[in-house]
Amino acid sequence: MTEKDIINKILEEEPFMFRNSQGYCIACSPKDIHKLKGGGWKVDKGAPMHFGLFKGSSDMIGFKPTVITQDMVGKKVAIFQCIEVKTKNDRLSKAQIAWNKAVEKNGGIVQVWKENKDGVTIDKQSKKY
To answer: Distance between CA 4 and CA 118 in Å, rounded?
Structure first.
């Protein structure tokens, strides 16, 4: 089972979750990029750029529609939800643990969807870090 397989399962079961792609690149003009002999690339000048949310933020973010009680009976509110995707041998990083704790502390829902050792099923864990 790949990370993509787990993400597809999340998208089937959680309709309000969205992919939080993250990464790092060098932003530059195409004229500053040169192909080297042997297939490599050389960048003359550029600026480092991080994209996505914060370092450690989950692979999937979104909200869980929830009916609440008392003064807002029958109305729905959106509760922030994040899901971290892990394959069989992956582990949470310190930054991911910090992100999860911050989301939970502020009332959000945190889950880690991890491929089980059988390679077929997914374990949906809450507070497992």
So the answer is: 17
